[in-house]
Design brief:
The protein is an alpha+beta fold. 44% of the residues lie in helices and 27% in strands. The longest helix has 37 residues, at 2-38. The chain is elongated, with a radius of gyration of 22 Å.
């Protein structure tokens, strides 16, 4: 009888983890999509040069954004099953996707008046490993160079 109660308790926690984890993930994705639309005016590239303009650079600044996101227990269990059978661990793919997109958004929010962000780099690390080295939390750091341009080309053509 005790085993049955423990099984029911475990299944109830699993169901709650699934429902609330799904709700939290959908809410976070909605937030990311809305904010990505808001920040499309700042082009971001991994290249080292300012692109698409002949305007002079007024100043540059280091821009950073970091985030730590944890996975719920339901997804950990799914990932554990994937370790047995092999294949893509989709539950962790969405975790890393959300973390990367959120870090880039936070980086853009740190320099709202920049014209471009160049030399974008992403660093990902697992900061909390749970039981049996399962991933608990992921940290993503996004950094790049925020470029501020002069309003108009200040190049003067003088004739001597």
């Amino acid at each position: 009888m005790d085993a049955l109660i423990q099984l029911i308790f475990f299944l109830t926690l699993l169901a709650l983890g699934y429902v609330f984890g799904k709700i939290a993930e959908k809410k976070h994705y909605r937030s990311i999509i809305e904010r990505e639309k808001q920040w499309t005016q700042i082009p971001t590239t991994s290249g080292r040069r300012v692109v698409g303009t002949d305007r002079e650079v007024k100043r540059v600044q280091l821009a950073t954004g970091s985030v730590v996101i944890s996975v719920d227990y339901f997804k950990r269990i799914l990932a554990g099953l994937r370790n047995i059978f092999g294949g893509n661990v989709q539950s962790y793919e969405t975790l890393v996707d959300r973390a990367r997109r959120e870090a880039v958004l936070r980086m853009k929010e740190s320099c709202p008046k920049a014209d471009q962000i160049i030399n974008l780099r992403l660093e990902t690390s697992s900061i909390s490993k749970g039981n049996k080295n399962q991933i608990g939390s992921v940290e993503v750091l996004a950094y790049g160079t925020a470029v501020y341009l002069h309003l108009a080309s200040t190049t003067t053509h003088s004739s001597f």
